[in-house]
Amino acid sequence: MLKLMVKQRTYSKYAQEAALLLGKQIKLGRKQRKWSEKNLADRIGISRATLQKIENGEMTCAIGLRSGSTNLNKPLSGKSATNNAFKLA
């Protein structure tokens, strides 16, 4: 039987805290806009499960900020895109 050796990746305390903070900011922004997990996941082209991992600060998935950020500026129900832009700050 062939066993694959998968090296467990270790992250610094600061990287883990940054991932957790980023996830909390994304979740907060989503909730402020009253968007469901599915709505946001569809907007940025990822699965709902991946969004949940990101919002929980899990570091097992990679995200592409460039491609995701462009889809978030779509206007909702006739409102201007600038009012609905997803900002993390």
Description:
With 89 residues, this protein is mostly helical. It has a domain at 13-67: lambda repressor-like DNA-binding domains (434 Repressor (Amino-terminal Domain), Orthogonal Bundle). 53% of the residues lie in helices and 0% in strands. The protein is built from five helices and no strands. The protein has helices at 13-32, 37-44, 48-55, 65-71, 81-84. The longest helix has 20 residues, at 13-32. 7% of the residues are buried. Mean pLDDT is 78; it is low at 76-89.
Quick recap:
Helix content is 53%, strand content 0%.
β content, as a range? under 5%
Give the mean pLDDT.
78
Shape annotation: flat
User: Are there runs of 5+ residues with pLDDT below 50, and where?
Assistant: 76-89
User: How many strand elements?
Assistant: 0
Please summarize the sheet with the most strands. none
CATH superfamily of the domain at 13-67: lambda repressor-like DNA-binding domains
Return the CATH topology of the domain at 13-67. Answer: 434 Repressor (Amino-terminal Domain)
CATH class of the domain at 13-67: Mainly Alpha
Oligomer: single chain
Specify the CATH architecture of the domain at 13-67. Orthogonal Bundle
Number of helices: 5
Radius of gyration: 16 Å
Helix-and-strand structural type: mainly alpha
Name the helix and strand elements from N-terminus to C-terminus, one letter apiece. HHHHH
Distance between the termini: 50 Å
Percent range of helical residues: 40-55%
Features:
single chain, 53% helix, 89 residues, 0% strand, disordered C terminus, 434 Repressor (Amino-terminal Domain), 5 helices, mainly alpha
